[in-house]
Amino acid sequence: MEREDAWETLVRALDDVSRRRLLVALLERSASDDAVRVPEDVHRGDRELEALKFDLYHVHLPLLESADYVRWDRETHEVERGDAFDEIRPVLRVLHDNRDDFPDGWV
Question: d(Cα 101, Cα 38) in Å, to the nearest integer?
Fold first, then answer.
């Protein structure tokens, strides 16, 4: 992937709070416990669970999966780091480490 395309893909992946929360949840997982269950592990009560589930399954997870940031098991509803996760890891680390400096609900 060209550098400009990679940057656009990264920015698009971070353009939604649900995607940011999912990616940060994956960042926080240890190697032995690297799966996140969706929508349970990303729901923060700020929107209806059914609406979040619909958006995750039909918008957010397909986008992140196509970028190879995640692997999504549709049967178990588990999401793991994809092969390209390390490309987005440094930006996620900055977001996570500085989460108190961002507006509420951003991460």
Answer: 27
End-to-end CA distance of the chain: 27
Rounded Cα gap, residues 25 and 42, in angstroms: 7
CB-based contact 98:20 (threshold 8 Å)? no
**What is the pLDDT at residue 100?**
86
Cis amide linkage into residue 62, ω under 30° from 0? no
Alpha carbons 21 and 42: distance in angstroms, whole number: 6
What pTM was computed for the model?
0.84
Q: Which domains does the chain have, with CATH numbers?
A: 3-99 (1.10.10.10)
